[in-house]
Specification:
The protein has 131 residues and is mainly α. The protein is built from 7 helices and 4 strands, in the order αααββαααββα. A hairpin with a 5-residue loop joins strand 3 and strand 4. Helix 1 (2-17) packs across helix 3 (34-46) and helix 2 packs across helix 3. It is elongated. It starts with a helix and ends in a 5-residue tail after the last helix.
Length: 131
């Protein structure tokens, strides 16, 4: 997981420095697999950090202007258990903003912290909803 977070950050930095680039070019420049790069780009796109047009990827500043607990739980749903610093890296909000939303999600029993300091969805969130 850490390697993917680092790669996501490297991809964002590369996209900031280059006007447009294909996923295969990103993979070549960062010595990553094209499949892994595309997976990361799709997650970054879901959080409006990047966009794709005609086979090229572009950096776009986030459109998420206000962080919510839902943003954090959505990210954990996509990536699996994450630490506060990993969430901060991916969502591009401050450590204190992320910590505040995590505290809220923990108090509502949406998230819990494991022994390694990573947050994951609780069983209550995973449980099927009654119809």
């Amino acid at each position: 997981m850490i390697k993917n977070i680092v790669e996501a950050d490297e991809i964002l930095e590369l996209l900031k420095s280059i006007d447009r680039i294909s996923a295969s070019e990103i993979a070549y420049k960062l010595s990553c697999s094209p499949r892994g790069v595309i997976k990361i780009l799709l997650v970054l796109e879901s959080f409006n950090h990047v966009r794709q047009l005609n086979g090229y990827w572009y950096y776009e500043p986030r459109y998420i202007t206000k962080l919510t607990s839902s943003n954090v739980t959505d990210l954990i749903t996509l990536w699996g258990p994450l630490s506060v610093s990993e969430i901060t890296t991916l969502l591009r909000f401050t450590h204190s903003e992320v910590k505040e939303k995590i505290r809220g999600a923990v108090s509502r029993k949406m998230l819990e912290r494991d022994s390694q300091g990573k947050y994951h969805l609780t069983d209550a969130v995973h449980a099927p909803r009654a119809s």
